[in-house]
């Protein structure tokens, strides 16, 4: 028996499920005080909105995201019901890379403009900056218009310009979601593989959320653009308390991360195959 859940629907909903699971994991790790970029007291006093408001704001944004994704997949669907074949793995890897570059380029300039244009900053982008001390599930806490312009349109462009199939997009958007949540997690955990592969990471983006730092570090979510940004991407900036180790791969933490990544991958695959093939 087949539930007949299409790749289109999975590409729409799996990244949202992944968002809440991955950010929930970081909520559980929030008590690791030695690894926090800011103290819990700072989180409680500096942030301008409550966690309940953030959850509601993110859910609203995800409703918009669902609507746009469904419209997009309907438009690109040829109506035959035939699932496009997956290209070779090397091609998929290339599409991933193109998608990452496209989404980064789009978000960099849109994000920077939202800081330059005082009207847009005051009425739209400042909502994201009301979290001076970011935490995982606040990653998509944006004005709905910003969510639409930066995240959703950026995602649509990366999908269209890379030529990836809806099936590939399930994994691409899940990956982009995990990276965005990771950048807002508020922790600098040794062994985080993202910190090894990306200069654009939780410490880098944390600087941008600070009052002193919001003229820097506009790049998101994958790479670092421009020497001015790159100079502040070394993960040092905001960790001005405690002794959270920056380098090294304590083997236990590495195991935890490998476990988490496999777990997330399994959730995506399991959801896909369970709904698609049973
Ligand atoms: Zn900003
Ligand atoms: Zn942010």
From TrEMBL:
Keyword annotations: Endoplasmic reticulum, Lyase, Membrane, Transmembrane, Transmembrane helix
Protein topology in the membrane: Multi-pass membrane protein
Keyword Kinase: no
Annotated Pfam families: FA_hydroxylase
Gene Ontology terms: biological process: lipid biosynthetic process
GO (cellular component) term, any one: endoplasmic reticulum membrane
Superkingdom of this protein's organism: Eukaryota
InterPro entries: Fatty_acid_hydroxylase, Sterol_Desaturase_Related
Catalytic activity: a long-chain fatty aldehyde + 2 NADPH + O2 + H(+) = a long-chain alkane + formate + 2 NADP(+) + H2O
Enzyme Commission (EC) number: 4.1.99.5
Molecular function in Gene Ontology: aldehyde oxygenase (deformylating) activity; iron ion binding; oxidoreductase activity
Fatty acid hydroxylase domain location: 96-221
Predominant place of localization: endoplasmic reticulum
Subcellular location: Endoplasmic reticulum membrane
Chain ranges passing through the membrane: 12-32, 53-76, 88-109, 254-275
Entry similarity comment: Belongs to the sterol desaturase family.
Protein name in UniProt: aldehyde oxygenase (deformylating)
Native organism taxonomy: Eukaryota, Viridiplantae, Streptophyta, Embryophyta, Tracheophyta
């Amino acid at each position: 028996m087949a539930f007949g859940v299409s790749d289109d629907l999975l590409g729409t909903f799996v990244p949202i499920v992944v968002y809440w699971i991955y950010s929930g994991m970081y909520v559980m790790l929030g008590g690791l005080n030695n690894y926090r970029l800011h103290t819990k007291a700072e989180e409680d006093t500096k942030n301008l909105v409550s966690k309940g408001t953030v959850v509601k704001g993110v859910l609203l944004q995800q409703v918009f995201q669902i609507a746009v994704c469904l419209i997009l997949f309907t438009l690109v669907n040829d109506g035959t019901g035939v699932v496009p074949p997956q290209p070779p793995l090397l091609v998929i890897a290339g599409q991933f890379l193109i998608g990452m570059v496209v989404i980064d380029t789009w978000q960099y300039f849109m994000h920077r403009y939202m800081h330059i244009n005082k009207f847009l900053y005051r009425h739209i982008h400042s909502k994201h900056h009301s979290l001076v001390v970011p935490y995982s599930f606040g990653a998509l806490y944006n004005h709905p218009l910003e969510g639409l312009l930066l995240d959703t349109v950026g995602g649509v462009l990366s999908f269209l310009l890379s030529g990836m199939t809806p099936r590939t997009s399930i994994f691409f958007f899940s990956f982009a979601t995990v990276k965005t949540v990771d950048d807002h997690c508020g922790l600098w955990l040794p062994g985080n593989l993202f910190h090894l592969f990306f200069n654009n990471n939780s410490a880098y983006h944390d600087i941008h959320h600070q009052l002193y730092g919001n003229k820097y570090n506009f790049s998101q979510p994958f790479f670092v653009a421009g020497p001015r940004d790159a100079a502040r991407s070394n993960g040092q900036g905001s960790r001005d308390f405690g002794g959270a180790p920056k380098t090294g791969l304590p083997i236990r933490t590495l195991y935890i991360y490998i476990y988490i990544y496999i777990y997330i991958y399994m959730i995506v695959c399991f959801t896909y195959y369970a709904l698609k093939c049973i």
